[in-house]
Amino acid sequence: MSDTAERTIAWFNCQAGVAGDMTMASLVDAGADPDEVATVIAGLGVDGYALLFERVQRCGVGATWANVVVDHDHGQHDGRADRDTPHRPAREVLALLDAADLPPRVRGRARRVFLRLAEVEGAIHGVDPTEVEFHEVGALDSIVDVVGVCAALESLDIDEVWCSPIAVGHGEVRSAHGVIPNPAPATVTLLADAGAPSRGIDTTMEVSTPTGVALMTTLATGFGAMPAMSTSAVGYGAGTADTAERANVVQVVVGRRGGHDDSADADGTPVALLEANVDDITGEVLAHTIGRLLTAGAHDAWVTPIVMKKGRPAHTVSVLCDPASVVSLRSVILDETGSLGVRMSMLHRWPQQRTEATVDVDGHTIRVKVAAHRIKVEFDDAAAAAVSLGVPVRVVLDRAARAADETTTPRQRDSP
After folding, report:
1. Integer CA distances (angstroms), 400 to 293, 366, 408, 413, 414, in order
2. What is the pLDDT along the chain (416 residues), one digit of tens a residue?
3. pTM assigned to the model
């Protein structure tokens, strides 16, 4: 990963739309190692597909086309969905990712994308996200696309993703559910939940797919014009069609920016703050709610004692999260607290760069987070070791911190 002085950015220009295969191809065109991408995808441990990268022209623009060819027995061929495509539950896709031999950041990014898709599909169809039956999105080629994009981001050591306004078409498209509006309901919901800017273009093609939009709205730090950076590479990922009026490509611009003097960095990373005031639940329920929020992907969650009208003691539940996670985390607050409302404000944060490591304390593995200015020991690991060793937890915390200090280098402490 990049050090604290500079971070690597990928800005995606989705003026003609966005799809998973186009996004992966644009990154390969910008320099991601196609063999490395293929090797990471192979870590899924599935067969029945072939991944080919080809040079093509789209409206006079040289681009790379990612052709994911799936065996017809899997229900798809050449990326075209048909009604025989088997349903794949969201839990099955997540289990596949969890069991796969993938780099941690690749697995984490891919899981976030499919979790987001499950939340959106669950809201649309009125079912629990884990019970969502993926159709086109759960097909093998879509899984290859998502993991391939995350693998290509890793190949280029991308720390941040940014995205332009996303183009959408009009009319209708055919799906596993039949004929549906264009853009598809999942696509519109993903855009709306993330507050992502979009614009319509005069075409009946499905220029932006749920998979492509899920990648952008889940992984992007922000939307709009290209952020300030020193450009190092440009890539173009081609769609299948070669239209006369518009280059059917996703453009990606890769570059670096300095940490302390860069204007974009000075503004920090956009985050949402969700809050709800509650005065009728117990401390146990509050603690459970915080746990659920953190498990669901919140950056942080906490409870603050307050006094409400008529002197009633109460608490404010606060959650800091990515803008793309607002809907799912708001639902957790409402479900667990029974609050009649949640408020939101947009903030910026400046997370300190850190690495995660493990140390050994008398035969017990303890996780630690190492930053330039401190070492933080995972308390639950220390507490479990303290019980097993029959010593106070403060002793284990001290031993783990000293072990981490002895085994990490200043360079590791400055890495994100």
Report:
1. 28, 7, 12, 16, 19
2. 444 447 899 999 999 999 999 999 999 999 999 999 999 999 999 988 999 999 999 988 999 999 998 875 544 433 333 334 456 788 889 999 999 999 999 999 999 999 888 888 888 767 777 666 665 544 788 899 999 999 999 999 999 999 999 999 999 877 666 788 888 888 999 999 888 899 999 999 999 999 999 999 999 988 888 888 899 999 999 999 888 888 999 999 999 975 444 444 455 677 889 999 999 999 999 999 999 999 888 999 999 999 998 899 999 999 998 876 788 889 999 999 999 889 988 788 776 666 778 899 989 999 998 877 788 899 999 999 999 999 999 999 999 999 888 875 444 444 43
3. 0.61
From 300, 329, 349, the end of a domain falls on: 349
Same domain, 99 and 238: yes
Short-list 39, 73, 40, 69, CA closest to 54: 69
Asked whether residue 1 is domain-assigned, the answer is no
Asked if 160 and 115 sit in the same domain, the reply is yes
State CA 204 to chain mean position distance: 29
Q: Where are the beta strands (DSSP E) in 92-134?
A: 133-134
